[in-house]
Amino acid sequence: MDATSAFWMRVQALEENLDSLDYTILSAMSDTDKVTAVTRIRRLANRMSASAAVVTDAAYRANATEHTTGTPLGDFLAVAEGRTPSQGIGVVKRASKLAQNPKVKDAALSGDVSPDHATAIGEELGKLPQGQLSPEQVDRAAGLFLDRAATTPPGQLKRATQKILEEVAPEAAPSPHDEAARIAAQRNRAVKDRRLVWGSDGEGSTWFSGQLPDLEAQQLIGTLQAFGEKGRRAERDEAEALRSQRAEGRITDSQYLAARLELESREARSTAQRMADALIDMVGLLGSLDKVPSAGGQTPRLVVTLNYDRLHDALAGKIVAGVVNGATGEIPVDAGSLRRMCCDAGILPVVLGGESQVMDMGQERRLVTGAIRRALEVRDKHCIHPGCTVSANLCQAHHIIPWWDEGPTSLENLVLLCRHHHTLVEPDRYHSRDQWRIVVDPDTRIPRMLPPERLKKHLPQSAADPVVGGTITVSMGESSAQPVLVA
């Protein structure tokens, strides 16, 4: 049997063996066997990925697809595998890096290193001054990279390139002066290439894209991670506070479990979602501290343009709320978002003429004054949701009875809520949704939140206890103007 026939016979055997694997047996395996299966199958998967890369690189070097199909390999993969042309080219480039050095290629094929490690090593070997190194020195450098791969993530291998070059070919390594000049030039290029752009995706989201020099990027990343970690700490503190409040009898079992269920939804956020929330919190904190510089004589603000009657009807949920004129164009605003914007906002009256020309613009009037805000922070100290420890300076002032429903902007009708929990108390259009409610203790006048009745079906029977009476419950009905005493 010739080598080509043997190759195809073994490929067919691989396919047949994969077809014959019985995955239903996994449910009957012990945990130890499952871990062993994960380790072995993933190692096989890495070896198969390395094999695919080696075959891909061989086809690329031979221009095989151009000869047989008249199509470059990157485009061929795009058509054959449903990729974009750029993705197809990326597959080819990564395969070339993995297969560039024989020692690295063999390590990937045998499963000693992952395809990602082998690709990263191939990329770093390509950065070495090839004309100044002998084949033996390149081979030794490959061995040193492979040694480091056992304990170093692929993306961090580049940190070892300079030391490895100094070890295998000190005469070829740049002098300290040359290295300083290289770093300075790299910094200059990074500063020149900095950019940040954004646009609307047309589906209610704004996309961002860009790059920053490493130093500035680390400052931004560090700040976002700090906000993200603060969120994690807040979740841990909230869980501990809920346990303490239940143990001390300040909340019932049903209130504890309802708040814990709601907390779990935030704990399940992905890292990417946490970083997005961190950016929003960072911008919100800057605004609340009046640290945002003015542009054109005024600080940045969201402006919703509509007449007073439409504003009232929009806040009541009777009509589509309106649009915000943002950096990406006109952004539709739903009633719930507009209510939250108006809870602690500035209202700027504008008189429009027949063709919507601005005829007159009045003075901005803040709904929540500085004095009321300070009193709120002293009273509530943080978000009033059970267990939530988000600090007062990161919270929004919420009208219990909406100001658009004749609710007064007074301390007795205001509470502090964090950005997340603020969304839980906004009424629906018809005020019929069973949801979290704000109540005020008749003796202490301290507000607190009660969970929806519909949560009880998700709670154990022993925990679905009745709410203790004697509190003032705020009705969110259209005719509500005063709190209603519940006996």
How would you summarize the topology of this molecule?
Elements: H1 3-20, H2 31-61, H3 64-69, H4 73-81, H5 85-99, H6 102-109, H7 115-125, H8 135-149, H9 161-168, H10 176-192, E1 195-200, E2 206-211, H11 214-247, H12 253-267, H13 271-288, H14 308-315, E3 322-326, E4 329-333, H15 335-343, E5 346-347, E6 350-352, E7 358-361, E8 365-366, H16 370-380, E9 395-399, E10 414-418, H17 419-422, E11 437-440, E12 447-450, E13 471-473, E14 484-486
Antiparallel strand pairs: 1-2, 3-4, 5-8, 6-7, 9-10, 11-12, 11-13, 13-14
Helix pairs in contact: 2-5, 4-5, 5-7, 6-7, 7-8, 8-9, 11-12, 11-13
Describe this structure in words.
There is one protein chain. Helix 7 (115-125) runs antiparallel to helix 8 and helix 11 (214-247) packs antiparallel against helix 12. The radius of gyration is 32 Å and the shape is elongated. It has a domain at 25-190. It is α+β, with helices and mostly antiparallel strands and 487 residues long. The strands form 6 sheets. A 4-stranded antiparallel beta sheet has the order 12-11-13-14, with no helix packed on it. Strands 1-2 form a two-stranded antiparallel ribbon. It contains 17 helices and 14 strands. The longest helix is centred in the middle third of the chain and has 34 residues, at 214-247.
